Each structure stands twice: as structure tokens, then as C-alpha cells.
Amino acid sequence: MPIVTIQVTREGSRPGNHSVTADEKAQLIKGVSQLLLDVLNKPLEATFVVIEEVDTENWGWGGLPVELYRKQLARKPA
């Protein structure tokens, strides 16, 4: 009985979205479940997928809050 936890920042994937949409979540659940079936032969009905959305203020990257890190990345020359 696999349990997969997916953590994402709470922000939209497209302008106007402020979080992951229900359709995007459904696609993640379907895709992860299918991958476990294909690779490990784990039946769909035995696979659990949990999606956790985390506010960006609670997400760190490179030793900084994610928003500050992204600002630094944007300022770096390509």
C-alpha cells in the first residue's frame, strides 16, 4: 500500500490561479498512481496520494525564503 506525498507551493500555475487547481491535482494523482502501477505493479486501489500545498512564506530554498531566492535568481545574468 504505497502512500505518496507531493508538496507544492501554494501558488498558481497560470495567471489568475492562486493555488493548484482541482484538475491539476487530479492529473497528479492519476499520473503518480499510474506510475506506481507501471513500475512496481501496485494496484490503483491500493495507492494513496496526498497533495500538500505550502504557503511560499513557509518554503525555503538555498537558505532563503523562496520569494527572496527567486528574486536573486532573476537578478543573476544568464
From TrEMBL:
* Residue ranges crossing the lipid bilayer per the database entry: none
Q: What keywords are assigned to this protein?
A: Isomerase
Superkingdom field: Bacteria
Which Enzyme Commission numbers does its entry carry? 5.3.2.-
One GO molecular function term of this record is:
isomerase activity
Provide the 4-oxalocrotonate tautomerase-like domain boundaries.
2-67
Tell me which InterPro entries the record gives: 4-OT (IPR018191), 4-OT-like_dom (IPR004370), Tautomerase/MIF_sf (IPR014347)
Pfam families according to UniProt: Tautomerase (PF01361)
Record-stated family:
Belongs to the 4-oxalocrotonate tautomerase family.
The protein in question is named: Tautomerase
Q: Which organism is it from?
A: Caballeronia udeis
Q: What is the lineage of its organism?
A: Bacteria, Pseudomonadati, Pseudomonadota, Betaproteobacteria, Burkholderiales
